[in-house]
Amino acid sequence: MSIVDTIKNAGQAAVQGAMAKxxxxxxxSWIPGGVPDPLIxxxxxxxxxxxxxxxxxxxxxxxxxxxxxxxxxGMTYAALAYSTIARGRITAIATQAAAAAPGVVLVMTHLxxxxxxxxxxxxxxxxxxxxxxxxxxxxxxxxxxGQPIAxxxxxxxxxxxxxxxxxxxxYAEEPSITSFAAAKAEGPKPGLFMxxxxxxxxxxxxxxxxxxPHRVDHVYRTPWHNHNAIEPHAATIVWxxxxxxxxxxxxxVAAQAQTIADVFDLKTDQxxxxxxxxxxxxxxxxxxxxxxxxxxxxxxxxxxxxxxxxREGVYRIVGGRSLTEQRVAIGADADGRFKALLHxxxxxxxxxxxxxxxxxxxxRAGYAADSIRLSVETVKMNMLANTFMRAPGESVxxxxxxxxxxxxxxxxxxDPIALRLRNEPDKDPTSGLPFSSRxxxxxxxxxxxxxxxxxxxxxPGTRREGEWLVGMGCATGTYPYYRMPGAxxxxxxxxxxHALVEVSAHEMGMGTSTTTAMVAADRLGLPLxxxxxxxxxxxxxxxxxxxxxxQTAAIGAAVIAxxxxxxxDLLKLAGNDSPLAGLSAKDVGSExxxxxxxxxxxxxxxxxxxxxxxxxxxxxxxxxxxxxLELMHWSMHSHSAIFCEVRVNAVSGETRVARVxxxxxxxxxxxPKTARSQFRGGIIMGLGMALMEETQFxxxxxxxxxxxxxxxxxxxxxxxPEIDVIWTDIPDPHTPMGAHGIGEIGITGVAAAxxxxxYNATGKRVRDLPLTLDKLLD
Length: 778
Prior knowledge:
Elements: H1 3-22, H2 38-41, H3 56-61, E1 76-82, E2 88-94, H4 96-100, E3 104-108, E4 141-142, E5 148-154, H5 157-165, E6 168-173, H6 180-185, E7 189-190, E8 192-193, E9 196-197, E10 199-202, H7 205-211, E11 214-222, E12 234-240, E13 243-248, H8 253-263, E14 271-274, H9 289-301, E15 305-308, H10 311-317, E16 324-332, E17 338-349, H11 361-364, E18 371-380, H12 394-412, H13 416-422, H14 440-451, E19 464-465, E20 468-480, E21 488-494, E22 499-503, H15 512-524, E23 531-534, H16 551-574, E24 588-591, E25 594-597, E26 604-606, H17 607-613, E27 618-624, H18 630-633, E28 637-649, E29 655-665, H19 672-691, E30 697-698, E31 703-704, E32 722-727, H20 750-762
Parallel strand pairs: 1-15, 13-14, 17-18, 22-23, 29-32
Antiparallel strand pairs: 1-5, 2-4, 2-6, 3-5, 7-18, 8-9, 10-18, 11-16, 12-13, 12-15, 16-17, 19-20, 20-28, 21-22, 21-27, 24-25, 25-26, 28-29, 30-31
Helix pairs in contact: 12-20, 15-16, 16-17, 19-20
């Protein structure tokens, strides 16, 4: 980092520090969200109704083109070869046989790859999304077992795969750290997440824990997890003169294009990246080595390239969730009030990026306690760079925290729901900020009634049906509301009264394009079929990341700004001959295909009429959303109460989840149909984390040993029980549309609810995920 960059970063940190102190003190009305969004009050539109995904027809008909389905004349197909050592140097790669194989166009190694800059690592700047700070195929160094060391281009995928298998590589191995124990022996370091320290201390938690009349103190462990989206990572890439075109599967179109431009010393407008459809992301569909290597090979060969990772390839070069070792200690009074809450531990990461699993994030705002000590330390291992994975931090952190709370409830002989409600905070326990909206108590009460919690036995192992022991468990889940800066919306209103809304957003199957159309239709006062949405293309201005469950809020804020600008422009076009003459933008609203006075609804004019009189074919506005200052003014979160019933075979130890209920508090639900699917999908992912998901990491060689869905188990239909989903649907007055994110709250708390139900069924406490049957056998 240069001196200039250091000074710049220091200046930005100082500004952010000042903002963090001043923004909480500002009046609510000065903050975005200080005045509730009108759509919270509007009940006659499509928001809040169940709408089928607008892209569903295209997917069923097969006309929705994913990244590996773009056909370009003269296209070649790529295959990668991967290192088999954890650290060292490549001393030789025998490429002759591969180069001579049928159909081979190019064999690329570090010896002939174009010169490229190392991608800027995620978090080092607002547009940096590189997986690590390592150069990609620029030297003979090997940094992890599975690193790409060669790329083969051929006329067919089969020819490329065969030729890649003919490569013979020799190495000079060097000492590496591939054992978690060895990494801990080197000494943990303080963890950072998104540039912020992972530590909070309030009072003397250690002393208050020691003095508490009741306490629990245990260590919980979670393993490595790998991404397994239905669509493996892929890109179709072509150079057009000095312009680079990529059709990719991406959650971060704009930032990824900028990072790639920097790698190849290109201007921003020389890279176009499209990502119209993504077959599942969950934090893993970002920039990895394969897109850069595909672009380099396309430049070297002078031909288009399709690079599609095999499932094994995804495990070799796409990061996942790293393992954690967490201590949770809680001290309480006789009535269950928390005197001390400690959540500390260690997460593994790589020397080449800074993405620890921030398992304390959910604990920060979870419960009131007289004293709190939270921290995440990190150790470094020579392994694939880890990355975001659905609810990073919260999903595994709630397993530890909510298991410990269940253990304390047992020690106190207290109902675990009552214990949680007794420790509900009236403000954020660590930041001191007021909650913008928090109705978890209602979620607990309605969920408990619907699930039949009153019928649960508090004595473990007392309910039995033949060979099966039956138990119930519960857990709280939480995930922050985010709204990242950079969102822009462009609205084009045509003379026929139809609108095109363009946002640099992403559709990964969760219904973003449908929800965007619904929000825009209600905001513009148009029928849903009069609104079209374009997204997933760097030709559209702005930068929206589909991560942190924040995309809908980011889009909503940008559409608010664009709609306000559109209304102002339409009033200018309306002129003095309009019934709206003399009114300002704050005096009118959009409804029934036009503008109307808020005080006198008879003063109205349609969009078609305004544009016709102005002799305009269309009017277009482009506006950025407001800065997300609400995040500094309120503590903002989605919440869940997860209920689970399990059956554990007393002979074999097999665990079957019989039913699950998720009761959610996530503000206003914009589209119940797609929301229910999102909640259920998160819960199913949580069941996988609880019962079966585990990356088998060979600590001798640093190699992932189960790189396929035959060996890395995820839930299938027979593993998934009845899943019931309910929600409070109480709008948060301080967010766009009153909504919170829902993509990641579904998974949080699920693993703990399963583990707590297993304890209730068997009396055996499992603190190491996954809950495989060997851990339940005597």
